[in-house]
Amino acid sequence: MAIASEIAATVRRILAVLVCRPSLAFALACVCLFACNPASLAPRRSALSQGIVQEKELILRDLSVVEDPDRTSDPCTSGLATWSFGALMSRIAAQAGADDAPAFVLRWLGTWDVEQDVNGFIVPIQRMDGVITSRWLRESGGDALDLSRAPFRLLAIVNRMDLRKVDPDGNPIDAGELRFVFGAVNTTCDKIPLEIILEFRQDAQSADDVAAWAERWHALGSLPFGVELNAALQDLTDRITLLNQLRTNDNAASFPDWEQRTYVVAEGDLRLAPLDQTPDASLEGSQALADYVNANEEQIIADQHVVPAEMRGGAIPTDLAWSGTGMSDPFEARHHFALATCNGCHGGETATALVHVDNRNRYFMSDLSNYLTGRVMPILDTMGRPRYFNELQRRADDLQSLLANGGAFPGPGLNRVH
Question: Over 70: is that where the pLDDT of 28 sits?
Fold first, then answer.
């Protein structure tokens, strides 16, 4: 017992030093990466989700999918195949009641080139015209966009059943989301730092409906990459009807800063909307933000909080760090609050280099962040504390749990959007 107590005390002293000296923590982490057994750093599959094939059931980025000649259209050529950016934007225009899909897309691109107000917070001008709009019009040969020449390349198709919602009585509202991740390209079809995610609702009104979605996704895991899998995947993608939101992560129009935005269908257009779970950047370090976090610590640490609507702005710099100024718990409460924000999830809280799915050039498969794969852990958060993530494993466990429970909802999910 005495030896155990001494070991525990020593561990506490070491952790205290690392917290106070993040640079030392970083150095030790680097040493560990080179000195530890590499097998100990590999992502671990839980016993629960042994049967989930992540690269087929959760995030599909294999070239046989994202460069399927029958379903995708590469910006190096042209086309309006079913998984192309132009075809999907046409579906969104129809949802909005817009008769002219090219004009609908052009109006959306134009929102970057004017200053906007969201919840009383100013969203600055970013020059999308010089990055995408003008040359797309030029390549279209006139004043209207040719959607078959959209300068966006498919990176991945993503299952987000873990984001499903229920009403206060526990009845399903939906079965989560099906997402298409696109990366922008320049005039020579090379990738540029601008990504767009189209996030569609998976309709469900009952546990049986949710179970059916889970079974369809799971069935992909038993199919080889190729014609049969893509046909089954299209059966899934053909079922979606409504866009929940469109998200952007940009460093091309917003250079030198990365910036994130969210758009929703409203009044016949894609309108800039408050960012989910993300206060406006002007609130960083404010007493108002500290008061909110301090008053809601328990919910925040349980990942069940909801950032008040009046605090949320329409854009956020991706590299903004939430400092924890004035927070009574600048470590756990601050971290959980920051992790739920758009910029925290894509930045310092997960040690991510701004995107979780890398943009890619033709014939190359997108890489995934360590946050998604659990590939290199631990990482150090904004305050220098070690954190462990394996987000795809968490989603795999969730899907397996759904399959085992017939679509029932086994406890509350994390209140996340990313």
Answer: no
